[in-house]
Amino acid sequence: xxxxxxxxxxxxxxxxxxxxxxxxxxxxxxxxxxxxxxxxxxxxxxxxxxxxxxxxxxxxxxxxxxxxxxxxxxxxxxxxxxxxxxxxxxxxxxxxxxxxxxxxxxxxxxxxxxxxxxxxxxxxxxxxxxxxxxxxxxxxxxxxxxxxxxxxxxxxxxxxxxxxxxxxxxxxx
Length: 173
Description:
Structural class: mainly beta
Helix content: 10-25%
Order of helices and strands: HEEEEEEEEE
Low-confidence stretches: 1-6
CATH architecture of the largest domain: Beta Barrel
Distance between the termini: 81 Å
């Protein structure tokens, strides 16, 4: 019987050394080792960065306002504004309430409201009027919010007539 430092295999039928079986065993051990290493490697835990949840909750700074005043289907006035202060914001709280703040010549104007969300429609209820104003969310990401609002407002020349005001507001967090 001849032994190498590896594995000695003796054929049981005639008691001789079988080199083919030794080579086959070496490949089998190599194959099993590779399978075990690949198996252990695949168990490595990947730490994926958490995906930020997109939500309307938070403080949104006003960055752009585009408004149209429409009377009988005709645009009678338009405003495009891009300069705002830190006092121009809307803040949505998780309990369904929120605040609007606007800069005025005498200081910030703060209004409280409650809101409901259904799909892309936000309905805000001003506490003084207790009347809902629907706003359609056109963009909502972790850092951007854009809404479209249409409401009836008294005509500046005749308060007995109502015109449609269309506002597109853009915010950033």
